[in-house]
Amino acid sequence: MNTREIEKLVAQYPLVQRLIGLEEVTWFNPNTVTLQQGLPYVGLTQKEVDEAEARLGRFASYLCQAFPETQKMNGIIESEVVEIPAMQGALAARYGQTIAGRVWLKKDSHLPISGSIKARGGIYEVLTHAEKLALEAGMLSVDDDYSIMNTDRFRQFFSQYSIAVGSTGNLGMSIGIMSAKLGFSVSVHMSADAREWKKRKLREHGVNVVEYAQDYGVAVAQGRVQASSDPRCFFIDDENSKTLFLGYAVAGGRLKKQFEQMNIVVDKNHPLFVYLPCGVGGGPGGVAFGLKLAFGDDVHCIFAEPTHSPCMLLGVHTGLHDHIAVQDLGIDNVTAADGLAVGRASGFVGRAMERLLDGFYTLSDSEMYSLLALLANEENIQLEPSALAGMAGPARVCAHQHYLDSQKIGLEQLNNATHLVWATGGGMVPAEEMANYIAAAKS
Ligand SMILES: *Cc1c(COP(=O)(O)O)cnc(C)c1O
After folding, report:
1. Both 37 and 63 in a single domain?
2. Whose CA is nearest to atom 13 of ligand 1?
3. Residue whose C-alpha is closest to residue 362's, from 414, 420, 424, 314
4. Bridge partners, 83 (sequence order)
5. What class of enzyme is it (predicted)?
6. What spacing in Å lies between the alpha carbon of 319 and ligand 1's midpoint?
7. Where does the pLDDT of residue 247 fall: very low under 50, low under 70, confident under 90, or very high at 90 and above?
8. Which atom number of ligand 1 is nearest to the Cα of residue 277?
9. Is 16 in the same domain as 30?
10. Whose CA is nearest to atom 15 of ligand 1?
11. Residue 220 belongs to a domain with what CATH number?
12. pLDDT of 287 strictly over 80
C-alpha cells in the first residue's frame, strides 16, 4: 500500500490510524447478528462438529496407548476450567475497573500431548488424514478398535506418507508430535520467532524442523511449495483448513457439559463472555463457532491480539480480510507472543465468523508479560505470553457501557456473568524459559 492508499483507508476507518500508532484499542463489532442469521455464512454445521467429536472418540483408545498421559481422560484431549478469584481482584485493581461477574480460566495451556490450544485442531487434522489413508487402504474400518494403529504394521504404512506444516511454534508441536507418533515423515517449517526449545523438542521426536529467517507467512508459503512437489505429502493449511476449524469447534459442546457439571448457568440472564487470543484465526474462530453452536446468543466471543499483529481486527474492521496485512500499514508483526505473530488473518475464518464475534482488542507485549507475572503470582499458574492476551478482556468489556447496552446486558446480567479467559498455551514451557518471562515482566 502506498501513502495515499493508507490515507484513504484511515479516512474511512479512523481506528486504523490507532492500529498504526500501536495503541491498545478495543472495538466492539456493530455488525453482529443472531446465531440463526449468522450460521449460513459459516458454511459448516453442528452435524460436522458432531462428526469431528465422533472421530476423536474413535481415536481415544489409540491415544490412550500412544500417549499414556491421556489415560486419565480416557483418551479424550480436554482441559480443565478453574476459577481465578485472586486474579480477578488483581485485574480490577490493575485496570481500576470493577469486574462484575466471575472470572474463570480455560486451561488449554495444559492440554496433553502438546500443551496448547493446537492440541485440538492440529491433532484432529492429523488423525483425520491418518484415518482416511488407512480406510482407503482397507487396513481399518470405523468399527475397529483404533488402538491397532499403535503397531509397527501401521507405522510402516504411514511412513510412506509425509505431512508438512508452517508454524510459529505450537501448531508445529501438535502436528509434529502427533504425525511422528503415527509413523509419518513430518516436516515443520518454522518462522524466525519460534522458540528454540520448541524446535529442540520436535527434533527429539524425530521431526524434520526447517527454519526460516522470516515470519510465519514465509514459513507457510515455503512449506506449501515443498509439499506441492510431492504427491504423498499432505500440507496442513492453517490459513484455510476447515478440518482444523472443526477440531477446535468440538470445544464448544464439551465446555457446555463441563459447565453443566459445575452448575455454571449460561442463559439470557447469565451471559458468558469468552476471551480468545487470535493469531491467524483458526483456533479462536473454530472455538467461537463451537461455543456459538453450544450456547447460542448467550455467549459473547471477543478476540485479543498483540498491538504489533492486529491482523484479524484489521481484516474484519475494514472488511478487507486476507486482502490486507499489518505490514501493508508499516506495522512490524514483531511480538513475543509467538502464537499470535501473524500479519495476515485467515480470510476463511474472518468471512465465516465476522457476524458472530462481538469484539476485538489489542494489548502490548509488556502488558502480556505483566499479566503473566501477575497470574503466576496470584494463582500460581504458568502460561506463555500469548496465552495472557485474553486476560485483559473482562475489564475491557465491563468498561464499555455502550457495548453492554447494545447487547441488552444490564447490571443484573453483568453481575451474573461468567468471564472465561482462554489460556491457549504454556503448559510445556521449560522452567528456565518461564523464569525469563517473569524477569521480562519485571524489567
Ligand atoms: C496458535 C495460538 C493461538 C491462536 O490460534 P490461531 O489459530 O493462530 O488464531 C493463540 N495462542 C497460542 C498459544 C497459540 O499457539
Report:
1. yes
2. 425
3. 314
4. 104
5. lyase
6. 22
7. very high
8. 10
9. yes
10. 339
11. 3.40.50.1100
12. yes
Ligand 1: does its nearest atom lie under 6 Å from the Cβ of 283? yes
- What pLDDT was estimated at residue 168? 77
Question: Ligand 1: does its nearest atom lie under 6 Å from the Cβ of 423?
Answer: no
The answer to whether the CB of 278 is under 6 A from ligand 1 is yes
Residues 138 and 201 in one domain: yes
Any residues with CB less than 8 A from the CB of 282 and at least 6 apart, and which? Answer: 121, 238, 239, 241, 244, 245, 248, 346, 349
Assess whether 268 and 369 both reside in one domain.
Answer: yes
Q: Do 251 and 386 fall into the same domain?
A: yes
Q: Residue 74 belongs to what domain range?
A: 3-114+243-442
Task: Check pocket membership of 390 for ligand 1, CB cut-off 6 A.
Answer: no
Taking only Cα atoms into account, the Rg of the chain, rounded to an integer number of angstroms, comes to 21
Answer yes or no: is the C-beta of 279 below 6 A from any ligand 1 atom.
yes
User: Is residue 281 within 6 Å of ligand 1 at its C-beta?
Assistant: yes
What is the enclosing helix (H) or strand (E) of 345? none
Q: How far is the CA of 393 from the centre of ligand 1 (A)?
A: 16
Side-chain-side CA neighbours of residue 400 (13 Å): 20
Which pTM does this prediction carry? 0.97
Residue ending a domain, choose from 239, 260, 288: 239
Number of domains in the chain: 2
Rounded Cα gap, residues 203 and 271, in angstroms: 44
Residue 306, ligand 1, Cβ within 6 A: no
Same domain for 149 and 67? no
